[in-house]
């Protein structure tokens, strides 16, 4: 800790006089000493990423073998809190899919400290990074996602249970690399299909704690954004969302509500519905149009063919809609496929025979696991007195707030939780940032106004406020008084 303060002071006073090359050498030598002092793995230290703005916090990236015999290994990216990393909590973030990258998604286009630049060749700061409130750990899970891999091809068949078990092993072995963080407050967060991953992992960690006479996970909270919780309830709410947002006609909306029985809706087999329902669903998708981003219905879309060409020509791909670069995902894919970026991140150490993509093409995930009802898992977590937050970007039509809100309320009833914060607006920078409610002092539901499925991507500042409140165990402010951003 002391050493890190010293590094900061040295840099602040001397950086102006130093040449870049010298600065680089200085950074390496001092950082390595720091590593030796607090036991972090120096081979995983990310000295600097290509085109990265200078920062004072450290980044680590590398592999943790979860099954040496099979050759199964998960890739992680860890970024220290911007200030006081030695006292700030640890938050794990997972993206969903199943099969999508937490490093590409969460870390580099949502809540991490950097976003790709418009030409896909460098990075810019995200000033609303969640590492202002916490140390952040991103993991490519399961194997087959991003740079996580297995030497055993059959391992690419994964499902909820095996994914959670690998993550349990991962956490134990990752703590061996970062022993200082073992006893740190741990928060588990994620979005979308991580509505499965995160609660199921929390469940395993709580089981571990119940059986372990030694090490116990210091789990302090679970927060999931636009989470898949109960498939046959989340799907119909997409159509309600289309209907209420004028994205389908009244006729089609009424037909779907009258004719479709979503009770037995499963992903693997066509659900048992009438012809008129199926016709209405097909018509609905054609009216909604493919020129809409279902994850944020108010943003404009990016045209991939144009953008990919521009990136190759070293042009800026950036296209701003409502303050957000809607082409960021293409800039990210370009950046992550640069060999020098992979080298700097210690990624792709086995030279995988395919290129980096946001969502995996090699993973063979059990389709039927989407039908697992997560509500009983959330119930168990709440019964262990672990705070559970469900938040929802209110412009998302894929897993809209409607079903999440209902599921949380029903869970509260099941738990016999009383309303401890009545449903009402919460504020950020003097504006309504969303609406929130709390049950039993433990279970929070909050919307984030004008946010997408990827809440921190479209509303970085509101998202940071929400996350910061969550890790500090604070309620969201129900008045307009200026609030602390950290
Ligand atoms: C996987 O195979 C590679 C290449 O044979 C080997 O270097 C590595 O140790 C194996 N195991 C893991 C976990 O990568
Ligand atoms: C579909 O529902 C009808 C009426 O409830 C029932 O008779 C039929 O067996 C169901 N079919 C399937 C494939 O579940
Ligand atoms: C891994 O590296 C090889 C080159 O060695 C490259 O062709 C491939 O696209 C990379 N894969 C990923 C997932 O980064
Ligand atoms: C706002 O929150 C405070 C503190 O929790 C509470 O006392 C007050 O009643 C709340 N006001 C409204 C309008 O809900």
Automatic annotation (TrEMBL):
Cellular compartments per GO CC: extracellular region
Keyword annotations from UniProtKB, A to Z: Carboxypeptidase, Disulfide bond, Glycoprotein, Hydrolase, Membrane, Protease, Secreted, Signal, Transmembrane, Transmembrane helix
Asked whether the UniProt record includes tRNA processing among its keywords, one would answer no
Single GO biological process annotation from the record? proteolysis
Q: What class of enzyme is it?
A: hydrolase
| Enzyme nomenclature, EC number | 3.4.16.-
Annotated localization: Secreted
Q: Name one Pfam family in it.
A: Peptidase_S10
Which protein family is it in?
Belongs to the peptidase S10 family.
**Role according to the record:** Probable carboxypeptidase.
- Report what the protein is called: Carboxypeptidase
User: Source species, please?
Assistant: Rubroshorea leprosula
């Amino acid at each position: 800790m002391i050493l890190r303060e010293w590094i900061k002071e040295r840099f602040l006073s001397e950086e102006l006089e130093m040449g870049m090359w010298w600065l680089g050498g200085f950074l390496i030598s001092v950082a390595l000493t720091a590593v030796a002092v607090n036991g972090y793995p120096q081979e995983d230290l990310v000295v600097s990423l290509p085109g990265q703005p200078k920062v004072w916090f450290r980044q680590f990236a590398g592999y943790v073998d979860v099954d040496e015999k099979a050759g199964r290994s998960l890739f992680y990216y860890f970024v220290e809190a911007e200030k006081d990393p030695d006292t700030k909590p640890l938050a794990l973030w997972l993206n969903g899919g199943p099969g999508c990258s937490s490093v590409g998604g969460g870390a580099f286009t949502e809540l991490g400290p950097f976003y790709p630049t418009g030409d896909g060749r460098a990075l810019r700061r995200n000033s609303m990074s969640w590492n202002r409130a916490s140390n952040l750990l991103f993991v490519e899970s399961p194997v087959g996602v991003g740079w996580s891999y297995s030497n055993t091809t059959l391992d690419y068949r994964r499902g909820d249970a095996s994914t959670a078990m690998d993550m349990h092993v991962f956490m134990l072995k990752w703590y061996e690399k970062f022993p200082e963080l073992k006893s740190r407050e741990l928060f588990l967060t994620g979005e979308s299909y991580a509505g499965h991953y995160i609660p199921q992992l929390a469940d395993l960690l709580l089981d571990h704690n119940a059986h372990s006479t030694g090490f116990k996970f210091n789990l302090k909270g679970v927060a999931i954004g636009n989470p898949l919780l109960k498939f046959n309830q989340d799907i119909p709410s997409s159509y309600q969302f289309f209907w209420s947002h004028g994205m389908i006609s009244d006729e089609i909306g009424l037909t779907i509500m009258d004719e479709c029985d979503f009770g037995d809706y499963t992903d693997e087999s066509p659900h048992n519905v009438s012809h008129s329902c199926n016709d209405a669903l097909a018509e609905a998708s054609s009216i909604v149009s493919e020129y809409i981003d279902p994850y944020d219905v108010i943003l404009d879309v990016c045209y991939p063919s144009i953008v990919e060409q521009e990136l190759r020509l070293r042009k800026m791909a950036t296209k701003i809609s409502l303050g957000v670069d809607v082409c960021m995902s293409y800039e990210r894919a370009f950046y992550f496929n640069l060999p020098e970026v992979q080298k700097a991140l210690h990624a792709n150490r086995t030279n995988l025979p395919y290129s980096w993509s946001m969502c995996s093409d090699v993973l063979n995930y059990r389709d039927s696991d989407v039908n697992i009802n997560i509500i009983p898992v959330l119930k168990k977590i709440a019964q262990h007195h672990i705070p559970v937050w469900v938040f929802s970007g209110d412009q998302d039509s894929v897993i809209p707030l409607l079903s999440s809100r209902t599921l949380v309320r029903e869970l509260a009833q099941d738990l016999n939780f009383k309303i401890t914060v009545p449903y009402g607006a919460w504020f950020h920078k003097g504006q309504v940032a969303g609406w929130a409610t709390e049950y039993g002092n433990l279970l929070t539901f909050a919307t984030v106004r004008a946010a997408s499925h990827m809440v921190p991507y479209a509303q970085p500042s509101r998202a940071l406020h929400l996350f910061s409140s969550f890790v500090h165990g604070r309620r969201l402010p129900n008045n307009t008084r200026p609030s602390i951003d950290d």
